[in-house]
Write a structure and sequence with these properties.
The structure holds 2 protein chains of 2 kinds. Chain A has 4 helices and 9 strands. By secondary structure, chain A is an alpha+beta fold. The longest helix of chain A has 13 residues. Chain A starts with 20 loop residues before the first strand and ends with a helix. In chain B, helix 2 crosses helix 7. Chain B has 3 domains: 144 residues, Probable tRNA modification gtpase trme, domain 1 (Gyrase A, domain 2); 79 residues, 2-Layer Sandwich (Alpha-Beta Plaits), CATH 3.30.70; 76 residues, Beta Barrel (Elongation Factor Tu (Ef-tu), domain 3). Classes of the chains: A alpha+beta, B alpha+beta. Chains A and B meet through loops of A and helix 2 of B.
Chain lengths: 143, 362
């Protein structure tokens, strides 16, 4: 996620689940076989504030690691979401078209964005686990 | 370094997300913009608006001076009334939109926007030369809070003697709240019922706490600029420096209706000429017919040709769609006229909408 900064949100933070991997742009991805489910983290949704529109990637699109994959639009601004891994978009969360607020409410669950068929398994090694991501977020917040 | 309002320490304690708003460090939001927007539409919200400026005009020639400066006839105003008004330059461009408070025959306040405050002050002062008036800038010593929402009266009533019911819309009174002298007007920038409160800057935290405490039973929420912008746009209210400015004539926007053509004022000659020749563009409201949010400076197109430009745009939580304001060729300005707005390279369908987008149901 682009231009992600701490919001000073008073509400409790959600824990970053340890069943998935994380990027420095605050996306998460959950690997099942050779398919990766992608979403944004709780930290990201708070920084974005209220999501009001989601532009989903098209099915079948080939996405490239760290290149814009889709767009989340909040009241405040428009943010590119980057593909955490390269591959083909095989499923998108169409529920977000009518209820974009799911990204805010359940970032790690029903607010998932897309599923990508992994092109190169080695790309996963570059991602952080939840403990590394916790530390990364803590570092970001101190900035 | 951006300036801080007397509520700054309070915002920090509340862990507000702060933003540099044209040189002022102000809360963008405390929780989320939509939660705060909804608080105002459903219950009540409290805004720090101390960046706005108060210019006091006192003296025998006070009304004479203001009549010359503002493009609205205020001769019929009674003490205790306020009016929306416009300060024009010689070309009929809008130097600022403001509210005039009449305390008495020889005492007025101009409550002006934060950015043009110094310019306004100098403009008023220059034109007061040779007149029997005293001009004072009160921004430094004044704190301002806007208490807005359908529960605003109920909240404030807990702190004020006498019946707030008696203060009509765009009227004001001087009252005491916990022993602090306040000017309270029934007005605001949200399209809801509510009040603007002015008091000594030194009493800022005391007043904030008193209001928040009084509002506890009404779910009163501190609100930031992000909610304020959605609320004012839904209400069809203009933002100086964005929707209107010195480069755009007063006649292009709906302030045209408030012009006092029967009196003399700065800019009248230019405006008369423009009125005679007819204007070429209008500031209109629009709503998007497809998903998206138009933002400031987006181009407005018809069959690929540019016919206008967006000045303000947002997502309306009430209407659940993109809304906004923009200048558009006069021939396209009738309600219902369809066109496209270019949003990140894509043409998104939109149409001219009647203002306001939202009107509260009393």
């Amino acid at each position: 996620m682009q231009n992600c900064r701490s919001t000073g949100e008073v509400t409790e933070s959600m824990a970053n689940p340890d069943d998935r991997k994380y990027t420095k742009q605050h996306e998460w991805c959950k690997v099942e076989g050779n398919t990766v489910t992608v979403g944004v983290t709780d930290y990201a949704q708070k920084a974005l504030t209220d999501i009001v529109f989601v532009e989903l990637p098209k099915l079948g699109t080939k996405v490239e690691r760290e290149k814009p994959m889709c767009v989340l639009e909040s009241v405040k601004n428009v943010s590119d979401i980057f593909a955490p891994v390269s591959g083909e978009v095989v499923e998108v969360n169409t529920e977000l078209l009518s209820t974009p607020e799911l990204v805010n409410k359940e970032p790690f669950g029903r607010g998932w964005i897309a599923k990508i068929k992994l092109a190169d398994e080695k790309e996963l090694h570059a991602l952080m686990d939840s403990k590394q991501y916790d530390a990364f977020v803590e570092e970001e917040e101190r900035k | 370094m951006p300036q801080k309002t007397p509520f700054h320490a309070m915002h920090e304690r509340l862990r507000a997300k702060l933003t540099d708003f044209h040189g002022w460090l102000l809360p963008l939001y405390y929780r989320t913009p939509i939660a705060e927007h909804n608080a105002v539409r459903q219950q009540a919200g409290l805004f720090d608006t101390s960046h706005m400026g108060v210019i006091q005009v006192e003296g025998k020639d006070a009304e004479k001076l203001l009549q010359m400066l503002i493009a609205r006839d205020i001769s019929g105003m009674r003490p205790g009334q306020m009016r929306l008004a416009v300060l024009c330059n010689e070309n009929g461009g809008i130097l600022d939109d403001l509210t005039v408070y009449k305390f008495g025959e020889e005492k007025f306040w101009l409550v002006v926007n934060s950015v043009p405050y110094e310019n306004d002050f100098n403009w008023v002062k220059e034109h007061a030369a040779g007149m029997d008036v005293k001009i004072s800038g009160l921004r430094e010593k004044t704190a301002k809070l806007d208490l807005q929402g359908r529960k605003a009266e109920a909240v404030l009533q807990k702190l004020v003697q006498g019946n707030l019911n008696e203060i009509g819309r765009y009227n004001f009174r001087e009252v005491e709240i916990n022993g602090v002298g306040c000017v309270v007007s029934r007005s605001g920038y949200t399209g809801e019922d509510g009040f603007e409160l002015y008091f000594a800057a030194g009493k800022a935290e005391e007043m904030w706490n008193a209001l928040m405490q009084a509002g506890a039973g009404f779910n009163l929420q501190p609100c930031g600029l992000a909610a304020r912008d959605m609320l004012r746009l839904e209400a069809g209210m203009l933002l100086h420096g964005q929707d209107i400015d010195a480069k755009h004539s007063l006649l292009l926007c709906h302030y045209e209706k408030m012009v006092g053509w029967d009196k003399e004022f700065i800019g009248k000659r230019a405006l008369l000429k423009q009125r005679e020749q007819g204007v070429k563009e209008k500031l209109v409201g629009f709503e998007l017919l497809e998903r998206g949010i138009a933002r400031n400076a987006c181009r407005i197109l018809k069959k690929g040709e540019e016919i206008g430009v967006v000045t303000s745009g947002t997502f309306s939580p009430t209407l659940k769609k993109g809304i906004g304001l923009g200048y558009i060729g006069k021939e396209f300005s009738a309600a219902g006229t369809e066109f496209e707005i270019e949003i990140r390279g894509k043409a998104v369908k939109a149409k001219v909408a009647k203002l306001p987008f939202y009107r509260r149901g009393d």
